[in-house]
From TrEMBL:
Keywords: FAD, Flavoprotein, Magnesium, Metal-binding, Transferase. Its cofactor is Mg(2+); Mn(2+). It catalyses: L-threonyl-[protein] + FAD = FMN-L-threonyl-[protein] + AMP + H(+). This is FAD:protein FMN transferase. InterPro entries: ApbE, ApbE-like_sf. Pfam families: ApbE. GO terms for molecular function: metal ion binding; transferase activity. Transmembrane segments: none annotated. Magnesium. Can also use manganese.
Length: 351
């Protein structure tokens, strides 16, 4: 089955957003701090980011670092934010030509990764999702969602297909073979932003840090306690914040995709934001969330979306086959059930 990647929910209420991100990043061990640390945060668009540094280099100035991180996140936004008409991706989507469209090397490399995953998954992962997601209203900042007419679904489906998108690394550029396709990189944008911020920190000599934006995490080195970074995975409940499990992260990224924050109900039926382009409608499996640990946050983000699209059975098989470290939570009549891969089991916290 071919399905589209999910869009992350961006919460506008700042106090609620702070509570969400802090709950996701709750330290599961005792909070005793054993090493000097800096804690920084800011807003990028509608997403709140957090950065924690252990042993900040003496050459760093905290105010200058804050400004540099703000600029790093803003640059990512300028590349990827389709809701910002001035972004590179928004301009590419509006472009009606089918010749090469110049982009930054970082954007070209990101698109190359998404196309590799599209091929690996036989189209399960597809970033040319714009027409269908826009049709269903899941990328609308007005919150307006509704079940479309079948004729509109059929028309949108004709504009979807990763095979219609090409990438060139030298010189970096994108090209579409069909002028009206829309590329949507929301499925990797937050993970990519976390990785970009991490690389910025490393260029400044920072070796021990955690970056988080909208729940996607990149870690390197040691936490202020002198051990791995302890991160919580949420239980996929619609009300409140409940911890499901904890993981120990070191030199890794973590991302979670779920259906419990971005959905609507019409006529007594629940519609989540993961859409199957073969039908043009949201998928109907019971998977509520999937978390992935990978070498970096971008890859974790992409695979979490891919597995969420597949569902609990096909997703688990795909993860086992491709060596993806994943943790699944799905709904049953008796409550939630879980499964994990061998690799993910190794990072689960015992605390």
């Amino acid at each position: 089955m071919t399905v589209l990647p999910a869009l992350p929910v961006k919460i506008r209420n700042l106090s609620l957003l702070r509570a969400l991100c802090l709950s996701v990043l709750l330290l599961l061990a005792a909070c005793e701090q054993r090493s000097p640390a800096w804690y920084l945060e800011g807003m990028q668009g509608t997403a709140l980011w957090h950065v924690t540094l252990t042993h900040p280099p003496a050459t760093l100035n905290q105010a200058e670092l804050q400004a540099g991180l703000n600029q790093t996140f803003a640059q990512t936004n300028q590349w990827l934010a389709t809701w910002d008409e001035t972004s590179v991706l928004a301009q590419f989507n509006r472009y009606q030509g089918t010749d090469w469209f110049a982009v930054a090397p970082e954007l070209a490399q990101l698109v190359e990764l998404t196309l590799q995953l599209s091929q690996q998954s036989n189209g399960v992962y597809d970033v040319t999702v714009g027409p269908l997601i826009k049709l269903w209203g899941f990328n609308s900042h007005t919150g307006v969602t509704a079940v479309p007419e079948q004729t509109a679904i059929d028309a949108a489906r004709a504009k979807v297909g990763y095979q219609k998108l090409q990438v060139r690394l030298e010189p970096p550029a994108l090209r579409k073979s069909q002028a009206d396709i829309l590329v949507n990189l929301a499925s990797v944008a937050d993970g990519f932003a976390a990785d970009q911020a991490g690389r910025y920190l490393e260029a400044l000599g920072v070796r021990d840090y955690m970056v988080e934006i909208a729940g996607e995490v990149r870690t390197r080195g040691l936490s202020p306690r002198g051990d791995a970074w302890h991160i919580a995975i949420e239980k996929p409940v619609e009300e409140g914040r409940v911890i499901q499990r904890g993981v120990n992260l070191q030199e890794a990224g973590l991302a979670t995709s779920g259906d419990y924050r971005n959905f609507f109900v019409e006529g007594g039926k629940r519609y989540s934001h993961t859409v199957n382009p073969a039908t043009g409608s949201p998928v109907t499996h019971n998977l509520a969330s999937v978390s992935v640990v990978a070498a970096d946050a971008t890859l974790a983000d992409a695979y979490a979306t891919l597995l969420m699209a597949l569902g609990e059975q096909q997703g688990k098989t795909f993860a086992d086959t491709h060596g993806i470290n994943a943790y699944f939570i799905w709904r049953t009549d008796q409550g939630f059930e879980t499964a994990d891969t061998v690799g993910f089991r190794q990072v689960l916290s015992k605390k």
